[in-house]
Amino acid sequence: MTSSKTAQAPSQTTICIVGNGAIAKTAALGFAQAGHSVTLLVPPAGPAAPSATGEQPWDARVYALNHTAHTLLSSLKVWGALDAARIAPVDTMVVGGDGAQAGALAFDAFGAHVGTLAWIVEDRNLNQALDAALKFAPNIQTVSGRASALVLGVDSATVQLDGGASIRASLVVGADGGQSWVRGQCDIGIDYRSYHQRAIVTNFSCEKPHHGAAFQWFTGSEGIVALLPLPGNRVSLVWSAPDGLADTIMSESLGELAVRLSVLADEKLGTLRPLQPEVVKALPLALIRPHTIVAPRVALVGDAAHVVHPLAGHGMNLGFADIADLLAAVAGREEQRSVGDERVLARYARARKEDILLMQLATDGLARLFATNLEPVRIARNLGLNLLDKLPMLKRRLMSHAMGK
Fold first, then answer.
1. What is the pTM of this model?
2. In this predicted model, what pLDDT tens digit does every residue of 329-354 receive, in sequence order?
3. Could you give all domains of the chain from N- to C-terminal order, each with its CATH number?
4. Which of 90, 187, 272, 404 has the highest Cβ tally under 10 A?
5. Would you say 201 and 236 are in contact if contact means Cβ atoms under 8 Å apart?
6. Which residues contact 312 (CB under 8 A, 6 or more apart)?
7. pLDDT tens digit sequence for 361-374
8. What are the DSSP calls for 124-149, one per residue?
């Protein structure tokens, strides 16, 4: 059974996972269900939030999970534990350009030969299902503590904690986000570039049904706006807005934000109204490319391994693909090799290289292309969207990669 300790940590484990988000929890479940002893190191808990009464409000943070994520979570018996009433399938994706002659591109599940393109899942829904699974998972110990040092050895790595406790493991998995402590302890360099944008996230009700369609508009000077379907006549906003515009939006009411969005959304969704209680967040956006995702006895997953622009909604999906490939590399190792063996980790790094690079190039390239307001560039990109929309074979290949198929 899972146990929780706040003082002395276990001295020995096969795999130590550092992190407290959905990626860390999923990795812990994956390794535990594969038969490995796992220690999940989480930060000390803050004050408990008051428990909600009645129906939970809709979470401002949502993920567009693809088929790779669905397959992994299903294999770990987590997908079936999600609150299905709060999941919205995406059946159509509509992308629009900017200006009077805006280009347009549409994908649908029928054309991609799948039942659905993706699923919109709230952060809270996902984490609640993972937390429930962790409570009953064998082979997992959850340790609450603050890491102070990481000592890398030939046969093991040791995570030292404030207060003198330590965790010795054959493999340490850094699943601790874009500002990864594990990555920093390994002296892994990064390429960092701010997009000078913030992702503004909140939810609205819509006058017209969305019919399972996700909408995205590349607006040039005002950034990238996405409205993702939620169950019922509700949508979730992800607006990658330049910093100056983000400051203005965050100083306004959500009613004023709805008016701003009506220029784009009125024809498709009708009048938008803020969901109650009103919740809005603004998250800074940057590109982070670590020079490697492995070190002796260490593997990075999720945002610790890569941070990309959210315009394609695949940051979380990359993390789930990391976990699937790391689990496969460990499961396929030769009998004499430990889980943290150098060759095992090299295989993981090779398996992830192409997928991560393609997503970095695609998201960064699109973000740069659609941030340019020069008229010839605007015309060319709108023509490009229209041309791509008329090439079904290329569209299917793009959708297959995005869906993780």
1. 0.88
2. 999 999 999 999 999 999 999 999 99
3. 3-47+126-191+287-366 (3.50.50.60), 62-122+193-285+371-403 (3.30.9.10)
4. 272
5. yes
6. 359, 362, 363, 366, 402
7. 877 766 666 565 54
8. HHHHHHHHHHHHH-TTEEEEE--EEE
